[in-house]
Amino acid sequence: MAVSGAVTSLDYNTSALRSGLLTVKPIEIAKTIKKYGLRFRQVTRRLDFEKSPRTFEDVVKLNNEIFVSKIEVPPQFDPMKLAEYYTKKSIDNYKKDTELKQIIQEVKESTRVAGPLLSFVRFIRNRFESELRDYIRLNARGFLQSNFPLTFFSSFVLSDYTFHSCVLILENLVRRYEIRSNLPRARTEFRIYQRVIGEMKGEISPIIDQMDTFLMSELCLKRVIDLWNSETYDDIYKPKFLDMKKVKHEGLSRLENEFKTNLRETRHFLYSINPSVVSTKYDFRNDSTSQMIGKLLMNPTVLRSESWQGGLMDVSS
Amino acid sequence: MNKFKNDIEQNSIPCYISNSVKRELEGKIEDTLKFLGETLKELIKYYLEGGKKRRGLPLNSPLNSDDIISLEKFFIRIHSRRGRGIETLPAPAYAIEEWVVSFLNEKIMEGERINIDEFLTELTQTLLVASANIESRYEELITFEREYIKESNEVPDKAVIDSLRNIGIHDPDATHIASAEKHIATEPTVFITNDYGTILNRQAEIRRLVNLFCCDPIYGVYHLH
Fold first, then answer.
1. Do the Cβ atoms of A280 and B136 come closer than 8 Å?
2. Is the model's pLDDT at B211 over the cut of 50?
3. DSSP class of residue B218?
4. Could you give the CA distance from residue A180 to residue A195 in angstroms, rounded to a whole number?
5. CB contact under 8 A, A136 and B139
6. Which of A32, A302, B21, B139 is the most buried (most CB within 10 A)?
7. Chain B residues closer than 8 Å to A296 by CB
8. How far is B120 from chain A (nearest CA, A)?
9. A143/B37 touch (CB, cutoff 8 Å), yes or no
10. How do residues A287-296 score in pLDDT, each as one tens digit?
11. How far is Cα B164 from Cα B169, in angstroms, rounded to an integer?
């Protein structure tokens, strides 16, 4: 997800994971059916969603109110109006997301146990993987249209990798519980089946909580930069030059530190759950960019800017 | 580093990184990436646009081999300034040159109609991906201590730092060596580095002064026997 750009599905991905995985509850429906003049008791199971005291709209509204209270809002914006603006954007975007609604409906309607949950996590993963290249591109454009350093934007790329690792970890967990919920005892005894789903939620919940905290700090940082470079509500999310000097320095440093700390803590947390998923699989040896960076690290004298600035002279000759 | 890694694994040798080395390394990575970003955003862009203007072409026209010649002009200036003694190592500047030119050549050979903005965006994308992976690898190795390196919190002795400074080894190198020196009392220690310019060429002198052997990683294990 880039600093300045349209609202993306990543804006509400953990909310989707939360509502898709943590509010599910297994239910059993027993019916008596007549066949060949005999009466049979037919038991089906499906997943339902617990009724939350707060709707998606309530959660988004609350998050945006927290956001405006956490930051220094530029004088050209009214904090309450701003919260309403972001809330409306997120809800509109969520409403337009027919793919996501459809997959949640499939989870509700399926009579299988963990299968639909696995399809749901896979859907989130596949969609994120198909969008990842666009996110990196948006960050590259953001860097070229700003005076922020490259490492500022590479942290956002690392954040995207972290979200990807998180979804892979969730997928592994759900797959494991799918196998457990299909074992003979869980298939026949509803109580055991309920326990398996409960354990799955217990394992998933702290991961989603951690991701929520971390993604919120990322969202705050990106929004603050975008806001301080916007004159009106119409400028928000629009591509524009991002001037570091326009952002109140103290607020920016605080939010950047908060984001980096949360990123590191989240990666450490995910490492403790499944190091093989989080560890770098990048092929440094066969990548010309990494090799070039490696050579520079070994010979930092090249970073003397005066030897490069000389190249700027006399471009027309 | 493979031999070094094998040596410490086979001999179960503890390997430490001091706070000062960690800080220097993080600073080097940050500075290098910052420098690369600025080079792309300002100098490479400036030269490619300058070449287009000189040839009377619109700035958004597709890049071709003439644009590689524009880059050649830019890098000749860099190399010639280096030749006047500002910088003595040719490899790093050449590494950037080869990377940029090969990337553009690849695009042209593939028949891609790519303009300056798109070219710089794609080049930045590869940089962002590489730097995020470097950051992640550094984290695994140093911050999370997932492999063979542990952080040492030994506070270096000021008198040792001063004695190293007196023989012309300045900070941060003096602090790095003094941090390793603190380990001598508890376990056999060698200080490993690739810095031939400041440290390894003064191996004997440092050993006489602080009783610590400094060597290239490939020889580390032999000095512990």
1. yes
2. yes
3. G
4. 11
5. no
6. A302
7. 32, 35-36, 92, 95-96
8. 8
9. yes
10. 888 888 888 8
11. 5
Quickly list DSSP for A16-47: HHIIIIISEEEEEEEEEEEETTEEEEEEEEEE
Asked if B76 and B132 touch (Cβ cutoff 8 Å), the reply is: no
State the residue for tokens 């580390």: B220
- Domain regions of chain A by residue span: 9-280
User: Which amino acid type is present at position A4?
Assistant: S
**Among A residues 252-271, those touching chain B with beta carbons less than 8 Å apart:** 264, 267-268, 271
Cβ–Cβ gap B137/A303 under 8 Å:
no
Burial class of residue A57 in the structure, from the number of CB atoms within 10 Å of its CB (0-12 exposed, 13-18 middle, 19+ buried): middle
Pairing of strands B149-152, B190-192: unpaired
- B133 CB contacts (<8 Å, ≥6 apart)? A280, A282, A284, A290
Interface of A with B in 136-155 (CB under 8 A): 136-137, 139-141, 143-144, 149-151, 153-155
For A184-206, the pLDDT digits (tens) are 887 778 888 888 888 998 999 99
Residues of B with Cβ-Cβ distance to A292 under 8 angstroms: 95-96, 98-99
Inform me whether the pLDDT recorded for B129 exceeds 50: yes
CA distance A205 to A200: 9
pLDDT digits (tens, 9 = 90+) for B169-195: 988 999 999 999 998 888 899 999 988
- pLDDT value at B90 more than 60: no
Q: Exposed, middle or buried, A254 (CB in 10 Å: 0-12/13-18/19+)?
A: middle
Token pair, residue A37, equals 């003049």
Where do we find the tokens 């390394």? B25
The average confidence (pLDDT) of chain B is 88
CA–CA gap between residue A186 and residue B173 (Å, rounded) = 63
d(CA A115, CA A130): 22
Report the residue from B96, B102, B131 with minimal CB separation from A154.
Answer: B131
Tens digits of residue pLDDT in A32-73: 777 777 777 777 776 777 766 567 778 788 888 888 998 889
Q: List alpha helices for chain B, DSSP H.
A: 2-10, 19-38, 45-54, 65-81, 91-109, 116-138, 158-166, 173-181, 203-210
